[in-house]
Design a protein that fits this description.
4-stranded mixed sheet
């Protein structure tokens, strides 16, 4: 609006006219919105009366379904439109449960019978879907009854699989809850069994410590049996977790009280006590052992109950009855509980790190012994609580192993590992001294046998000489000395010794740090020869000349240019690729390219740690016509060496790069990196016909001398 030539009155009148036009437009829009709002409210009011439920029943509307069953579910019929139920899927597992859920869905959604099979087929998966395609192909459309019978015949257990038989053979292996789940799974497959029979089957499959208590309660229903079994299982778990009570030394008991047999707390429920009882007459004499006598017997390694030497697994020849008596003024540190040997089964054996890895330590010493007339190496380790033996020695010597009980061993990081078993009462001779002990079998051990504190305690006072590697102790008036194996210098293992190692092994690689020695001077004859042909040993600075044998890359007819996307490289490999590409550009071996061909690049590490740039020409080689030029086999060349005595070798430096690529084939050698596109001017490594080109050139150059004193092989 131009207001430069207008007065204030004219400008004010024009503005008022514009405002009046806008107010009129706003009134029209407001009236239109009121009409639309009224229509939306009327639609919202009439929608519940005229709304069908197509998403509930995908095949028919609600009115047709209700016309078929007008009196079914009168209470919930008005709420069907607000419930969204998903049809169960079936993949071949538990067909009975799936059929039951499908029929519930049909009844709830009022699905017509002629639509039930089609709706169910939409929800088949996996092997069930494959079977359904085969069934429809050979049998055509089916009714729901025919379809369910076919599913039962295909996916239900066969006649040879009797669920009732499996129900009687079911046993509890873990918890009562898992056993109940398996029991109910089998129970759903059988019908008509009386509840008393089911109660008997469930109780018979329970574990022994639970089954007897459940029988005592005499439950009358299967639900009561399950509840009682779970309560008894929980009680047993709480009892196992409860701490053991601290036992104090009781006062001396009269002989008359000791002579009476103790009552069996389980009599009346589990029957009489197992095993015979030794009758104790009233005139039995008791021998009391004081703390001092018990301490002396322990220091000498004697049994508390007889005069024989105590070793693990020792049993007295003649049963006797002893009483360990303590004076009331003796402190708690002299109590009988401190004098008694700890029970092995209550103590978790510990094996040290040195025994696991075989390393040397001041607390360890290797000695030579004999086990079943076979030489073995024993590690005397003060860091291991018990004795251990390698599983390989057990298998080699066919030693008897106790596998009835589960044994665990604690390693250096305080973790517990399961043992293979235990070898009891093994006799080992160490420098003529017999040692009888029990040995645990850990899954991993670097030593053949380990003698721990359990055995060292039975030897009494032991003196260790770490410098001379000796261990001495006394048995009565006789002194015994064990001589350790002195460590030797490191030597390399042969391949047979390396393959024969078992257990934990430590392997090292020794690399030279200093620079390698080079010849500082050569003999005069060699020096003059090197100076005369110095141009041959100098690094090439330019491209080789074009020859008749320049490399050619013939492609199969009607093939499109090959272009493969580059690989992803770590950041440190990108630096190496950029460095190598720059060197190739400076030497003139490659040049920037605009070729439609492209092959990826990858780095391969050399044995010396450097990187080698490799071009992946596999896609290009697939469409290249293969050359049939003969390349000699190594067996043929070895036959040519008959009668020769002096040999020399000439290794060409970058031999492939001494051959040019034909100008029309240079674009086919293009490769792409993360920073650019390049192509080779010389013959690169990795092309399918490169060996043939190189062999033909060498044969032509050395043709007068071939098979006389020159052989070409690569």
């Amino acid at each position: 609006m131009d207001t430069r030539d207008k007065s204030n009155a004219e400008f004010r009148n024009e503005v008022n006219e514009i405002l009046v036009r806008h107010e009129t437009s706003f009134d029209q829009v407001n009236a239109t919105l009121q009409v639309v709002l009224t229509e939306l409210q009327s639609l919202h009011t009439t929608r519940p009366q005229n709304t069908n439920s197509p998403e509930i029943n995908p095949f028919s509307n609600k009115e047709s379904s209700h016309q078929q069953n007008p009196h079914r579910h009168p209470i919930n019929s008005h709420q069907h439109h607000s419930l969204k139920l998903s049809f169960p899927k079936f993949n071949g597992d538990d067909p009975t449960a799936w059929i039951y859920k499908a029929e519930l869905y049909f009844e709830f959604q009022n699905i017509m019978p002629n639509q039930q099979v089609q709706l169910a087929s939409f929800h088949l998966e996996g092997i069930a879907l494959q079977w359904h395609r085969w069934l429809i192909k050979f049998r055509g459309p089916l009714t729901w009854d025919e379809f369910t019978k076919a599913i039962q015949q295909r996916f239900s257990p066969t006649d040879y699989e009797d669920p009732s038989e499996a129900l009687t053979r079911l046993k509890q292996n873990t918890t009562v809850a898992a056993y109940q789940e398996a029991f109910e799974r089998l129970l759903s497959q059988v019908d008509g069994l009386p509840e008393k029979f089911l109660i008997g089957c469930f109780i018979a499959g329970l574990r022994g410590e639970i089954r007897l208590d459940v029988k005592i309660k005499q439950p009358h229903s299967l639900a009561d049996v399950i509840g009682v079994a779970r309560l008894i299982e929980e009680r047993n778990q709480l009892q196992k977790r409860a701490p053991l009570p601290i036992r104090s030394v009781p006062p001396p008991i009269p002989a008359s009280v000791l002579a009476k047999p103790s009552a069996n707390p389980t009599a009346g429920v589990l029957g009489p006590a197992q095993g015979p009882r030794l009758p104790v007459s009233s005139n039995t004499s008791f021998h009391r052992i004081t703390n001092q006598e018990a301490r002396e017997r322990r220091e000498k390694g004697l049994c508390y109950y007889c005069d024989e030497r105590f070793v693990p697994g020792h049993r007295c020849q003649r049963p006797q009855l002893f009483m360990i008596w303590d004076s009331p003024i003796t402190g708690s540190e002299d109590s009988v509980l401190d004098l008694l040997e700890p029970v092995e089964e209550d103590v978790i054996p510990e094996i040290s790190f040195h025994a696991m890895t075989g390393t040397e330590h001041p607390q360890t010493m290797h000695v030579i012994g004999q086990l079943k007339n076979k030489k073995v190496i024993l590690l005397i380790d003060g860091g291991s609580t018990h004795n251990f033996i390698d599983e390989a020695i057990v298998s080699k010597l066919a030693l008897p192993v106790n596998r009835e009980k589960k044994f665990q061993v604690m390693v250096a990081n305080r973790e517990k590992i399961d043992c293979v078993g235990q070898c009891r009462a093994l006799t080992i001779h160490i420098e003529g001294y017999p040692v009888i002990a029990d040995f645990y079998i850990p899954p991993v051990a670097a030593c053949q046998l380990v003698l721990g504190v359990q055995l060292l305690q039975t030897l009494g006072p032991v003196e260790m000489d770490d410098k001379q590697l000796t261990m001495s102790f006394k048995e009565g008036n006789t002194s015994h000395i064990f001589h350790g194996i002195k460590p030797t210098s490191l030597t390399a293992l042969s391949d047979k010794e390396l393959y024969g190692l078992h257990g934990v092994g430590l392997f090292f690689q020794i690399l030279s740090v200093g620079s390698s020695n080079h010849f500082s001077s050569y003999p005069s004859e060699i020096s003059s020869l090197l100076e005369q042909y110095s141009s041959l040993f100098a690094a090439s600075t330019g491209l080789p000349p074009q020859q008749e044998h320049d490399h050619h890359i013939p492609l199969q007819p009607q093939t499109r240019p090959i272009s493969v996307r580059p690989y992803r490289y770590p950041y440190y490999q990108k630096n190496e690729i950029e460095k190598m590409v720059q060197e190739l550009l400076q030497s003139g071996l490659i040049r920037p390219s605009r070729s439609p061909f492209s092959s990826p690049v990858l780095l391969v590490k050399k044995p010396d740690g450097a990187w080698r740039l490799c071009i992946d020409y596999r896609a290009l080689n697939d469409i290249t016509i293969k050359d049939k030029y003969h390349i000699p086999a190594i067996d043929e060349l070895l036959d040519e060496l008959h009668g020769t005595k002096i040999y020399s070798k000439l290794d060409l430096r970058s031999g492939y790069h001494q051959i040019r690529v034909r100008e029309e084939d240079i674009p086919k050698t293009a490769f792409r990196t993360h920073e650019g596109h390049y192509e080779f001017v010389v013959m690169p490594f990795g092309l399918t016909n490169a060996p043939s080109t190189f062999q033909s050139l060498m044969n032509e150059l050395f043709h007068p001398h071939l098979r006389k004193f020159i052989l070409v092989f690569f």
